[in-house]
Amino acid sequence: MKCHGCSAITALTAQNSVGVHDVHIPPISFLQSQLSCLSQDLNPVRGIKIGMVGSQELAIAIGDFLSSLKEDSKDKQPFVVVDPVMISTSGHSLINDEAKKALMEHVFPHAHVLTPNTFEAEALLGRTLNTPQEVEQGAKDILKMGVKAVLIKGGHSLLETSSTTPTTTPISSDVNATIGYAQDYFLSSIPTNEEPRLCDASAGVWIRTARYDSVHTHGTGCTLSSAIASALALGHQQRSLLESGSSGTGATLAIREVDACCLAKAYVTAGIGQGRQVRGI
Fold first, then answer.
1. Which residues pair with 80 in a beta bridge?
2. What is the reported pTM?
3. Which long-range contacts (CB under 8 A, 24 or more apart) does 156-160 make?
């Protein structure tokens, strides 16, 4: 997407194309050192993607960094996309309750877009989401946690659960209609002074693509949130150029949160459609 990305490691994982097998949390001082180095070198920061935050201390440190960045950036604040990686593809918890609570308290208030998958949304809400209507209500309740917008990802169908216990609940017509599609639900509380749009994020938007019958989807959620941050950064850059009198032109000028989610979903879906399992030698 023609963005220059840099990383600050919040968790080291032992993983392959199938899933995560082990996690190591680096010292807080090392994360702070990474963030300090990047801040001194690469400014202005236009977009930030936050992935797995494996401890309470890390969440607090990240929140402190975002607060300082907000103060320094003033009216040119970077967009922050938070992917609350909490549950593995197989349904196992990756962080403890203390870390989850700290993430919600110290990081969520800085998030322009939160991108939980269905299992993670359920963990945040403390209840299951079994129908499209429950997903929509869940998004409204997640906004109350302090994030500005939420994209509940539909990579897992509403028929899948994080539990290993099979369900015997009858399939409703609404749920049955979603089979065969990867449906994400976007909802925003961000006020806008722009003209009314067909895609009204404040009223909620379902973003639908075909579901690919593939097991090679590990990492697509991380890619999606990174692509959202990249798209938002592009829009941020173009608007800054225009405000400074330079030639900021093109469609990227209009990129907002819902647009970035649509672009990112198209980008990731194209990758899944062409994806193949890489075999070792």
1. 48
2. 0.82
3. 156/117, 156/118, 156/119, 157/211, 158/118, 158/129, 158/130, 158/131, 158/132, 160/118
